[in-house]
Amino acid sequence: MTNIKQNLRAYYNQEADIRNSGEKQDWKLQIRQHFYDTAKAENKQTLLELGAGTGHDSQFFMENGLQVVAIDLSAEMVKRCKEKSIEAYEMDFYDLGALGKTFDCIWAMNSLLHTPKADLPQVLQGINTVLNPNGLFYMGVYGGVNSENEYVNERAATPRFFSFYTDEELQEVLARHFEILSFKHYDLTTGASEFFKQNNRGAVDFQSVVLRKMRG
């Protein structure tokens, strides 16, 4: 596990500038807007972003009135977050209790797919612990296939670990910890570049899940 985290940290440290200047796809912006609208309709006030990257999503939520905390494994990504005046911390999502806070919403866009399958229940339980009663949790990941491995892309020699799930497998895992409000499967095969197809190793679908903390 240590090597997985070290490799992820090294990869994303060197990706910070590229990702900071990148543009999000329209479908991701629509997903984000829908989650924000849901949170606003329920008068949610606070949000934690897991694997915030350079903070574009955190910045959006913050500028639209939510109190935001962001975490990322990469020091360079956290630096870019802080440059946007986001409260950000360099940490993984295995010990969220260390933040000493709870949240109305948790947002995880393409970050939990770096968690080994054996560890995901522990991570989900940690998320549940820092989520306020009736809280909302968004999880978005590439998937559609059942695999986990480290992959290297043509931009860097550092490997990244990915876990991919079939729709049925992911829903089964999530339902043990949360109420599933919506589960949407996006087929990204059409229009996907060869680079995307090769580096996602067949996982050219996207699973978008809105969840709620179960009542105890």
Structure description:
This protein has helices at 2-20, 26-41, 56-63, 75-83, 120-130, 167-175, 194-199; strands at 46-50, 67-72, 87-90, 103-109, 131-143, 147-151, 160-164, 178-187, 205-213. Helix 4 links the parallel strand 2 (67-72) and strand 3. The longest helix is centred in the first third of the chain and has 19 residues, at 2-20. It contains seven helices and nine strands, in the order ααβαβαββαβββαβαβ. It is α/β, with parallel strands linked by helices and 216 residues long. Helix 1 (2-20) packs parallel to helix 4. The chain starts with a helix and ends with a strand. A seven-stranded mixed beta sheet has the order 3-2-1-4-5-9-8, with helices on both faces. The chain has a two-stranded antiparallel ribbon with strand order 6-7. It has one domain (2-141, 178-188, 207-213): Vaccinia Virus protein VP39 (Rossmann fold). The chain is globular, with a radius of gyration of 16 Å.
